[in-house]
């Protein structure tokens, strides 16, 4: 552990393969074709699902904005 100018502690580590991961959804996703479609705001992640032709968002829950907004 090291300290810096911030109130919290900073822990240094090494990069490696993730030991685990969790799926938010298996119903929507993205692919390497559309990796540039993934964008974020302060509280939401947006992406384009190329296979389903849908714009999706995640703010704690996965939503299909295309269906909700009728586009």
Topology (SSEs and partners):
Elements lengths: L38 E2 L4 E5 L4 E5 L3 E3 H5 L2
Question: What does this protein look like?
Answer:
It is a single chain. By secondary structure, this protein is mostly beta strands. It has a domain at 32-69. Helix content is 7%, strand content 21%. The chain has 1 helix and 4 strands. It has one helix spanning 65-69; strands spanning 39-40, 45-49, 54-58, 62-64. It has a 4-stranded antiparallel β-sheet with strand order 1-2-3-4. A hairpin with a 4-residue loop joins strand 2 (45-49) and strand 3. The chain is elongated and about 50 Å long. The N and C termini lie far apart (49 Å).
Which labels suit this protein?
mainly beta; 71 residues; 1 helix; elongated; four-stranded antiparallel sheet
Could you say which overall geometry the principal axes of the C-alpha atoms support? elongated
Average of per-residue pLDDT values: 80
N- and C-termini, Cα separation:
49 Å
Largest sheet: 4 strands, antiparallel
Order of helices and strands: EEEEH
